[in-house]
């Protein structure tokens, strides 16, 4: 998996993480993995239900926690999904690329101290998405480990 990540610290009060990843799968397959609860729950670190439409919402239920809601702010099949979750804005876009597609994710990170942790978390999620699309089991573990977080601190220059 080759993922390119960069951070934009020019937004006052927040960092914006930008991920770019090419998947050797059709855009429609990746779109389904982003926009159906059953598919999302295979690679996202919690159970997900989704009312897949602009104005709809994702309901995210982490083990042992109360459900959280993320309002869908943009929905343009099969290319754009955006939502507001826990004070942060996430925007996913898909572009066709030969026999595959390119996924771009931007994520505002309200607390700059958490930028490396957030990047490491998405690294694990994007690997899980790759596994789900390939028909492999998702990586084991509850989330990013300290070595991966340290890697992103170094890579992104966030401490």
Automatic annotation (TrEMBL):
Report the residue ranges that make up the Activator of Hsp90 ATPase homologue 1/2-like C-terminal domain in this protein. 25-133
Per its UniProt record, what CDD domains does this chain match?
SRPBCC_CalC_Aha1-like_6
**Which InterPro entries does the UniProt entry name for this protein?**
ASHA1/2-like_C (IPR013538), START-like_dom_sf (IPR023393)
- Family stated for the protein in its record: Belongs to the AHA1 family.
This chain belongs to the protein called SRPBCC family protein
